[in-house]
Amino acid sequence: MDLDKIKSELSYKAVRSSGAGGQNVNKVSSKVILTFDILRSNGLSNCEKELLKSKLKPRLSSDCVLMLNGEEDRSQIKNKALVTKRFFEILKIALTIPKQRKATKIPRSVIEKRIKSKRNNSMIKQNRKRPEF
Length: 133
What we know:
The chain is an alpha+beta fold. It is built from 4 helices and 3 strands, in the order αββαβαα. It has helices at 3-9, 46-55, 76-95, 108-127, and strands spanning 11-15, 31-37, 65-70. Strands 1-2-3 form a 3-stranded antiparallel beta sheet. The radius of gyration is 29 Å and the shape is elongated.
């Protein structure tokens, strides 16, 4: 994964944002939409592209384009920085491969302890019964 190439492949679009802003909300385009085409990226290897396609499937369009919106702030520059930061966090999380779980055997002492406690519990319950003469 080449971060510089990926950063150059990002495309931004500024649109009018909804929400707080007063009179500015109708004049200033502060919302930023980041788009990234996974299939056409030169900064990713083929296996990384396949991994992203599988892990980010709900977030991708039919053309395998990832779109993120940023409208937290009134400033377009801050929104651009925030959405870029969020994009790289999503990319980092999606590209991490979880460790494979190693199956372990239950220790004999644990099994014996469980059986001993079951026997003890059984004896306690049997001692509650009325004695038979």
